[in-house]
Amino acid sequence: MRAAPLAGGTPGPDDLRPLLDTVLDALRSGAADRGGPLPAGGPGAVAHRVREALGEALPERGTGATEALAAVVRAVTAGAADPAHPLCAAHLHTPPLALAAAADLAASALNPSMDSWDQAPAASVLEELVTAALAAEAFPAAPRPDALVTTGGTESNQLALLLARERGGTVQPVVGANAHHSFRRAAWLLGLPEPVLVPAPNGTMDPAALEQALTELRGPLLVAATAGTTDAGLIDPLPEIAELCAAHGAELHVDAAYGGPLLLSERHRPLLAGLDRARTVTVDLHKLGWQPAAAGLLAVRDADDLAVLGHRADYLNADDDTEAGLPDLLGRSLRTTRRPDVLKTAVTLRALGRSGLGALVDACMALAGDLAELVEKSPGLELYAPPTLTTVLFRPYGASDEAVAAIRRTLLAEGRAVLGRAAADGRLWLKATLLNPHATPGDLAQILTLVEGGTDR
After folding, report:
1. Residue span of the signal peptide, if any (predicted)?
2. Helix (H, G, I), strand (E, B) or coil at 306
3. How far apart are CA 375 and CA 308, in angstroms?
4. What DSSP designation does 425 have?
């Protein structure tokens, strides 16, 4: 009996080809089974269908590659939330570009591990080139910017705090009340004081309150501003915050996991004015970059800041190997085994260029404006505020918070639409996060029709 075939090597592509046909057929069939943005029936029904399709999770004898792929991929697809469906608009959950997903297949088949050069000779060079180019977008005037590939905003923010701690000792994080939850967890993990919360009465950090906090606090300080909040997609006043940090000797980190890709849009890049005054910046390309997760970055203004991440393991970066010219990769991450997530990004950047990706950003920004306009024209709906990025908050006029929550859960249970929720201005709002550049005005109108229909139940 022949051993199970491998994905790599000269025979790998030929062994993969029929399996890919099976996967693609299962993706198509599963999407047809689902028939919408989300499987109907809620958690219990979905769990039942998955258990039924999977059968015994670890059988004594396997069913074979074709049957297993067909059954499991079809079941997971049928039970998936499909971010490519225009009515799936709850979270920063992007529909990945087909070319990026195809490139990610190559990464899986080749399976480079980015912890030593002899496991990833070409991928390590590719990562060096792409991260340098993206870091230069965040810090165009810096002489030696750099960036690390991460699993996303949570890891990037944690790294930013770690680097600040290594520069200044027990640094005190200062964050807006609108900041991502990862800062509190990162401070806990790193043994730092709990972040000082600066009021954000209108959803963005209040500069006057920040100035008061910086005046009263002592010791090394790291201010973390946000360029794209997860609730309403708002951007803190970065130029004012940067000025205050400079005046008080505080360092600045900007969490631009959501808004960072606006750097690629000539039209919307000005929204990030002041970003380049930060010392570190978080950017996620699995949000407004349309990459399969994960595709995070931590950009640094000065590559020397990364030197503290250096680490020695003789089997990966022995001194004599490094002296002989083999690149040392262990300082490029806190992780050891690490996928070449840069491959899909490199392919995307080459294929679309800055203008192509910028056009996708512009399209989603325009969709958010269109949805806000539709809400304002609807007598039964209330708009929270004109959108800053691609997030629109709205709710039925006169509805209680309980009713708003119930409308969202009903649409989820029925599999008809996937909307998020956010608290703002003391009330609960429905949240549409528009990341699908293929969505149409008709799709937007359908979202509102479903919500307004929910008020009649």
Report:
1. none
2. helix
3. 50
4. T
Alpha-carbon distance of 197 to 177, in angstroms, equals 5
Q: What is the CATH number of domain 353-454?
A: 3.90.1150.10
Q: Does residue 436 come out as left (phi exceeding 0), alpha (psi in the -120 to 50 range) or beta? A: beta
The residue type of 400 is S
Of 271, 278, 188, the residue nearest 224 (C-alpha): 278
Asked if 262 and 272 count as a contact pair (C-beta separation under 8 A), the reply is yes
pLDDT along the chain (457 residues), means of 10: 87 96 98 96 95 94 95 97 97 97 97 96 98 98 98 98 96 98 97 97 97 96 98 98 98 98 98 98 98 97 97 95 95 96 98 98 98 97 98 97 97 97 96 98 97 74
Distance from C-alpha of 190 to C-alpha of 229, rounded to nearest angstrom:
23
DSSP, collapsed to helix, strand or coil, labels residue 172 as: strand
370/388 Cα distance (integer angstroms): 13
Angle between helices 342-377 and 98-110 (to 10 degrees): 150
**298 vs 280: CA distance, rounded Å:** 7
Question: 105-352: what fold?
Answer: Aspartate Aminotransferase; domain 2 (3.40.640)
Which run of H or of E encompasses 381? strand 381-383
Query: Is residue 261 within 8 Å of residue 286, measured between CB atoms?
Result: no
What distance in Å separates the CA atoms of residue 195 and residue 176, rounded to the nearest whole number? 9
Between CA 76 and CA 50 the distance in angstroms is: 7
Its pTM stands at 0.95
> What are the residue ranges spanned by the domains of the chain?
13-80, 105-352, 353-454
Give which of 249, 257, 276, 283 is closest to 167, Cα–Cα.
249
- CA–CA gap between residue 34 and residue 305 (Å, rounded): 48
Question: Could you give the 3-state DSSP secondary structure of residue 127?
Answer: helix
CB 411 within 8 A of CB 455: no
- Is residue 420 within 8 Å of residue 349, measured between CB atoms? no
